[in-house]
Amino acid sequence: MSSVERRILLVEDDPAALRLFEEAMAESRIATLEVATTGREALSVLTATDDDPEHTYPDLIVLDVHLPDLTGLDVLEELKSSSAPLRQIPVLMLSTSTEQATVDRAYDLGANAYLAKPESYDDLLTLLEELRSFWLQRVEFPSQ
Predict the structure, then answer these.
(1) Which CATH architecture has domain 7-136?
(2) Domain coordinates of the chain in residue numbers?
(3) What is the pTM of this model?
(4) Domain Response regulatory, which positions (predicted)?
(5) Is the dihedral angle over the CA atoms 115, 116, 117, 123 positive or is it negative?
(6) Are 103 and 73 in contact (CB under 8 A)?
(7) Which helix (H) or strand (E) covers residue 38, if one does?
């Protein structure tokens, strides 16, 4: 098991979903959670690292598809067209929509996975454990 403290950026605008995710993250203690509630805020948080040598990129981005300003797909496109290391950060799309055209578009833009939002708190805890097991313990990340 890795002893490196991992960081996840959650981009989610729904207050109820955000609260559940924060509670589940606190209970599971799998990583440090950073939150952005809009696409523009997420891009601002991520690009602010360019000007601050003390700030590092998250290890993983969990990105809602439906956001109030830019869509999650817009944010994904911006991230994946950026220079390294920003474009190398794994992005997991999380949405209530499993419409095939949206799923296909996300993968075309470079999403690393597309997941349906869990319907219960227990399902969310299971998802977080799966994220920890695979993305935060098994995966080798690029250098920043």
Answers:
(1) 3-Layer(aba) Sandwich (3.40)
(2) 7-136
(3) 0.89
(4) 7-132
(5) negative
(6) no
(7) none
